[in-house]
UniProtKB/TrEMBL annotation:
One of its GO terms (cellular component) is neuromuscular junction. The keyword Transmembrane applies. Residues 182-210 have a biased composition (Polar residues). This is Synaptogyrin. Residues 175-217 are annotated as: Disordered. It holds the Pfam family MARVEL. The chain crosses the membrane at residues 12-32, 57-75, 96-117, 137-156. It is a multi-pass membrane protein. It comes from Labrus bergylta (ballan wrasse). The keyword Ion transport does not apply. It comes from the Eukaryota. Keywords: Membrane, Transmembrane, Transmembrane helix. Its main location: membrane.
Amino acid sequence: MDGVGSFGAGRAGATVDPIAFIFSLVVFASIVNEGYVNFGSERLHCVFNQNADACNYGVFMGMVGLLACSFFFLLDYKFSSISSVKDRKKAIMLEIGFSGVWTFLYFVSFCFLANQWSRTSPDDLPLNQGADAARAAITFSFFSIITWAGLTVRAVQKYLLGTDMTLFTTEHMDGGAPTQPYPSNSPVGATTETTETYQSPPFTENNAAPTYQVPIY
């Protein structure tokens, strides 16, 4: 069945929360702007225990998160114009899959950055340079776990809601034409004859012979 009236047609609000976009932006910007320091040379070192992989991973999560939020926001905006139920189903399943994977990857990001930050020596950060950016990246990585997990749950709920609507619509369309309790094709002004049979009231005998009173002379 391909129709606008089923599988998510009644979606209320966008699946992608703008908060997820903001959190990804904070993680990305924190590391890119202040996540690298130098030690008297032109070479920059990552503030997370001088581990370049930690900074690269954080930048990757923030950048892809921004792009994904933008893509799904556009998809939600165009969702009502998708007429195919199969395409709508694929779109919601894509949101579920990506949100679930991104929840896990942000969990890895939080653990990785927090671990590397705990191993960072104060001597590696002259004048505590980049410390605020590192803490911001770790904090908003944690918040992103909650945000993307919530988006996953909301996407699953929309998928289940769309499935129920599809089953409900299919059940009624595959069945026969609805029966009408009253005749609908009767001409105007015509008298409708009733074929209803009248039954005797309860607790009465239908086969009882009539009794006649004998006249008295």
